[in-house]
């Protein structure tokens, strides 16, 4: 929490730091300095060492453990829930849970059938269902109080102190890697289906021979190629941006609780913070659901475009 | 925005979950939805078939009822005719019987009257003879006067 030892900037930066496991300067894979303070890892950052284990130096060779744990956990929960419903599902005597799930499936199927022209594709339905349910659950983590899980992970103490798990970002989608990873998967599928349905020539022709014909090829490339890749990048960035911004607002509001028990003024700020938090949370629920829906719909739309020869 | 290996991890996780959904969740649920849709369609079809059959049965029933009514009416009218016939027959039979009885009674009566007349005639003729005998005071020769007596008794 923001206290005398930890100013606002530190508080914000602390909440934006992922729990990182990566390649240290001696070539070995460890948790970054101070990220985990248990056992050997705890002593390593204190003793003198001839290597550094700074997040900045790890570059690409690092893994955000909190993002992976949270996303796999949430994805696992969704998958297990769906699997357990599907396993016991019955056409004549559905359980209440099955009814609810069937409503979700009908919703996804309706959205897919409305926008996705080619029939008989076995991937698009499960892809859309997984996208919306997984992203929705990950987005919902935004509604947890920003300090709750980090506080527990840090051994029930303020982030001023070095607890067992010093950094833990609960919201996987506020880490660019999660939405970008999904968008990368979609991008691979877009390329695969484009080339499968239109051939390499057809795919390249779409990027170079339109809108103005072959005599304006450079112009066509300038128009089409950035557009083609921007929409795929934007698929991930849109989700990331919305949820990161929402998380940022929650962090800023959380700053108001800093001196809740210390003075009358601090108490008043805290009370204001509670109201703001409530208001923003109610508004943010809309974004949480909307962004999950938008990701699903755009996925379906882009894959549909990869199937149809347009222009 | 620090990209790192997490990107690949997330990509693999995404593929894993989509694969799982594609393998274990989507097909059974879709099969159940299709089964249910088919069942509902079958049910609706059965309902419309049932309605159609009901209509047919209704028309058939109406026809049968109409026929039965007609038959019943025929039977009633036949029975009426028959009853009339029987009454007529009985009447005419009774009439015949009555006539026969009347005739035989008349015949008996005639017979009896004739017999009585004969007897009376015989008695009268005897009385006449006896009276004549007494009047004449003499015996009349029966044989001689037989013709006269006969004549008289015939006149009676």
How would you characterize the overall build of this protein?
Chain A is mainly alpha-helical. Chain A has one domain. Helix content of chain A is 64%, strand content 3%. Chain A contains ten helices and three strands, in the order αββααβααααααα. In chain A, strands 2-1-3 form a three-stranded antiparallel beta sheet. In chain A, strand 1 and strand 2 form a beta hairpin. In chain A, helix 1 packs across helix 9, helix 5 crosses helix 6 and helix 9 runs antiparallel to helix 10. Chain A is globular and about 65 Å long. The relative contact order of chain A is 0.13. Chain B has 156 residues and is mostly helical. Chain B has one domain. Chain B is 93% helix and 0% strand. In chain B, helix 1 crosses helix 2. Chain B is rod-shaped. The termini of chain B are far apart. The mean pLDDT of chain B is 88. Classes of the chains: A mainly alpha (311), B mainly alpha (156). The interface between A and B is large, with 51 and 31 residues.
Q: Could you tell me the mean pLDDT of chain A?
A: 86
Please report the total strand number of chain A as a whole number: 3
Judged by helices, strands and strand pairing, the structural class of chain B is mainly alpha
The helix/strand class of chain A is mainly alpha
Q: Considering DSSP H and I runs of 4 or more, what fraction of the residues of chain B is helical?
A: over 70%
The portion of residues assigned to helices of chain A is: 55-70%
What gyration radius of chain B follows from the Cα positions, in whole Å?
Answer: 60 Å
| Order of neighbouring strands in the sheet with most strands of chain A | 2-1-3
| Number of discrete domains of chain A | 1
Low-confidence stretches of chain A: none
């Amino acid at each position: 929490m923001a206290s005398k030892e930890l100013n606002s900037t530190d508080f914000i930066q602390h909440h934006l730091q992922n729990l990182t496991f990566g390649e240290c300067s001696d070539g070995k894979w460890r948790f970054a300095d101070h990220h985990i303070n248990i056992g050997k890892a705890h002593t390593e950052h204190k003793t003198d060492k001839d290597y550094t284990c700074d997040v900045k130096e790890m570059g690409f060779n690092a893994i955000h453990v909190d993002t992976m744990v949270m996303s796999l956990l949430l994805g696992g929960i969704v998958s297990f829930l769906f699997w357990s419903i599907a396993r016991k599902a019955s056409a004549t005597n559905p359980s209440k849970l099955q009814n609810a799930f069937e409503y979700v499936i009908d919703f996804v199927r309706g959205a897919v059938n409305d926008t996705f022209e080619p029939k008989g594709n076995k991937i698009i339905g499960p892809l859309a269902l997984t996208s919306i349910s997984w992203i929705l659950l990950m987005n919902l983590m935004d509604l947890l109080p920003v300090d709750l899980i980090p506080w527990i992970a840090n051994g029930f103490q303020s982030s001023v102190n070095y607890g067992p798990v010093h950094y833990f970002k609960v919201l996987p989608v506020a880490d660019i890697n999660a939405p970008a990873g999904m968008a990368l998967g979609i991008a691979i599928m877009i390329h695969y289906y484009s080339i499968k349905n239109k051939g390499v020539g057809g795919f390249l022709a779409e990027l170079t021979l339109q809108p103005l014909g072959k005599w304006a090829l450079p112009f066509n490339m300038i128009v089409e190629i950035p557009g083609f890749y921007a929409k795929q990048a934007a698929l991930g960035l849109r989700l990331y941006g919305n949820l990161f911004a929402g998380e940022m607002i929650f962090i800023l509001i959380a700053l108001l609780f800093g001196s809740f028990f210390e003075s009358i003024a601090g108490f008043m700020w805290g009370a204001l913070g509670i109201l703001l938090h409530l208001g923003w949370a109610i508004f943010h629920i809309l974004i949480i659901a909307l962004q999950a829906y938008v990701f699903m719909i755009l996925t379906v739309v882009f894959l549909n475009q990869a199937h149809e020869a347009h222009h | 925005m620090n990209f790192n290996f997490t990107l690949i991890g997330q990509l693999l996780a995404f593929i894993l979950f989509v694969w799982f959904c594609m393998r274990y969740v989507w097909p059974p649920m879709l099969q159940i939805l299709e089964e249910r849709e088919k069942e509902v369609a079958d049910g609706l079809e059965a309902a419309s078939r049932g309605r159609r059959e009901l209509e047919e049965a209704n028309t058939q029933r109406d026809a049968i009822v109409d026929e039965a009514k007609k038959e019943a009416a025929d039977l009633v009218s036949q029975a009426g005719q028959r009853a009339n016939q029987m009454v007529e027959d009985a009447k005419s039979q009774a009439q015949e019987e009555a006539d026969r009885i009347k005739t035989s009674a008349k015949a008996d009566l005639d017979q009896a009257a004739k017999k009585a007349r004969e007897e009376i005639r015989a008695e009268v003729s005897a009385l006449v003879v006896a009276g004549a005998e007494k009047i004449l005071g003499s015996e009349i020769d029966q044989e001689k006067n037989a013709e006269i007596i006969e004549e008289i008794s015939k006149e009676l």
